[in-house]
Specification:
By secondary structure, the chain is mainly α. The protein is built from three helices and no strands.
């Protein structure tokens, strides 16, 4: 009787060893998916983040601003400077502990609108 037990235990141990060997051999054959590169990743891995040609395509020349546009931008910048100075003066005279006057909000909106126009002129 002890010999049959030994044979039974040896058979169970052999089956377990075979199952473990099969599992470890098949684990090496599993194909692991490779991660896809980010579309925002720089093409040049040596470039600092965000500076990979910074929106300039190969062979693309930056547009030049016409002299008329330069004079328009200069006058807009002078107007913007005047508007900001007036806004600063009105803001300094306002009691902010009460309520914020609607006029200041409108002035700030006009300043922002003019600044965006200047930016659009410079972009071309």
């Amino acid at each position: 009787m002890p010999e049959t037990r030994r044979r039974l235990l040896a058979a169970i141990a052999g089956i377990a060893a075979g199952a473990i060997a099969t599992r470890s051999a098949s684990a090496g054959q599993i194909a692991h998916p490779q991660p896809l590169p980010s579309p925002n990743a720089p093409q040049n891995q040596n470039a600092p983040a965000g500076l990979d040609n910074a929106g300039v395509q190969d062979g693309q020349q930056q547009s030049r601003i016409t002299p008329l546009a330069v004079s328009q931008v200069r006058s807009d910048v002078q107007k913007l400077y005047q508007m900001v100075s007036d806004f600063r003066d009105h803001f300094a005279q306002t009691n902010l502990n009460a309520t914020l006057p609607l006029g200041l909000i409108k002035e700030a909106h006009q300043i922002e609108k003019l600044a965006k126009q200047i930016q659009a002129h410079l972009k071309g």
